[in-house]
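pasting for ref
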Amino acid sequence: MDLLRQQFNNPRGLTLVETVVVIAIFSILMLAVTTSISSFYSYNAYTVAQSYQVVNARRGVEVLVRDAREMIYADDGTFPLARMEDHLIGFYSDIDNDDSVEYVEYELMGSVFTKRVHNAVGAPPTYPGTPDQTFVLSEYVQNIVQGGPTFTYYDVNGIEATATSTVTDIRYISAQVIVNIDPVRDPGEFMLRGSAALRNLKESF
């Protein structure tokens, strides 16, 4: 009975060494949990950002194809296709169905893919050099870095345009956009493709 009373009166706590060990173990566990949570959110933030850019670029390619299919002679009589370069295409199209033809340029500058719209003004109509609207379709396009064209052009026979081809030779275009917000990381690049026949011209492809 005296021994039992002594144990209750003198409860034994953790020693200094035991306390240090417990704190160390707790700190290691907390560091591991914090690192895992941080890595999880970091990876998912990257994935979300990549997906967002892919969706934007896909929408941009879809709009490009739609606009190009409606390519038509300008209000001032200019041929529908105005510029044909590896990373820039300029053409006339009534993109908003308002019975007035707009001049539209899609261009990849560095890694930024843009769309510019010029509205006709005046009588007789002219197209000012400064665009009325500019849209950024994607900021992470890798075509130039990888050395591939954004736009490719074909004649009425399906033969790819050469340096001697002119805009009046073209009857079919294709677009390819490679999107990756960070080329050194997964989930890797996404390649988006679209094509359009210039169906409003006198000759059909």
